[in-house]
Design a protein that fits this description.
The structure is a homodimer.
Chain A lengths: L28 H9 L4 H10 L2 E2 H7 L5 H13 L3 E6 L5 E6 L1 H35 L1
Antiparallel strand pairs in A: 1-3, 2-3
Chain A binds a DNA duplex through helix 3 and helix 4.
Chain lengths: ~140, ~140
DNA sequence: CAGTATCCGCAAAGATACTG
DNA sequence: CAGTATCTTTGCGGATACTG
């Protein structure tokens, strides 16, 4: 159960902002997307796959710190949403390759834009944060 | 936990993607940003403030489903990061207005880009999802 | 190699009550 | 009005062990 499964009355003026309009059920698209891709590992996986299709353990080695379980879970979730395609070659040992779909590549674009913002403003964030913290002492 | 320890086997080549380069501590900027803004409520608050500066309870009414506590927590966090400015007018009853800073407005841009992607592709996601789920039965 | 199956801790979020 | 103070619940993600 989720906090944003709340369908009720008062319509906020969110509708003027693209991507933030509520649908019939009261959800806004960007929240849905963030709920899928805003977790700890999804974006990291997408980015790693953007470079080239990759096999399971190679991916695991690329993404420092991810557990086997979370890689599996994340990949399943992305596959489910049509962002990643899973291809099995029935050799022994089995060979499973993961690749981005068209949809997967397309989301990488706005994500990269956010990435650029992040890279450019991380210092500003850090500065603001320490300013706030010292002022708070 | 260093990201570069196994550069020999599977080079992540993350460094070619803007916003995803690891820093000295092994963090990538976009992860840091998502850790701050990728939570349940931050983006919703930012978007609501993008329209106009808003007072606490008005904000609470705009954002359907947010608890008083989470609004406070979210606003503090955004203020700490320099994305939101808090202005108190010492009247009775007190009047507190929240507004986006320049930094706050600037992040709304890439966020809107992601919002547009979300709005355009939500149906594709939903379709992929139900396709996957029925295939799984 | 590429996964499943469990168990569990911890932090994020919700509910509720109270205050300057 | 604009918060703070607690308490409780939820669920993500880590650790570990086992399999085709």
């Amino acid at each position: 159960m989720n906090a944003r499964t709340n369908a009720s009355a008062a319509a906020p003026m969110l509708d003027s902002h693209p991507g933030f309009e509520r649908d019939e059920e009261g959800n806004c698209p960007i929240r849905e997307v963030l709920d899928r891709v805003g977790d700890t590992w999804s974006l990291l996986v997408i980015i790693n796959l953007q470079a080239a299709p990759t096999r399971f353990n190679a991916l695991k080695r690329s993404i420092e710190g991810i557990s086997q379980r979370m890689l599996t879970v994340t990949l399943r979730s992305l596959e489910r949403d049509g962002l990643v395609r899973r291809t099995v070659r029935p050799t022994t040992p089995p060979e499973v390759e993961y690749a981005l779909t068209e949809l997967g590549h397309s989301i990488a674009v706005p994500v990269a834009a956010l990435g650029i913002w992040a890279a450019r403003n991380r210092d500003a964030l850090k500065a603001a944060r320490s300013r706030f913290d010292t002022g708070q002492l």
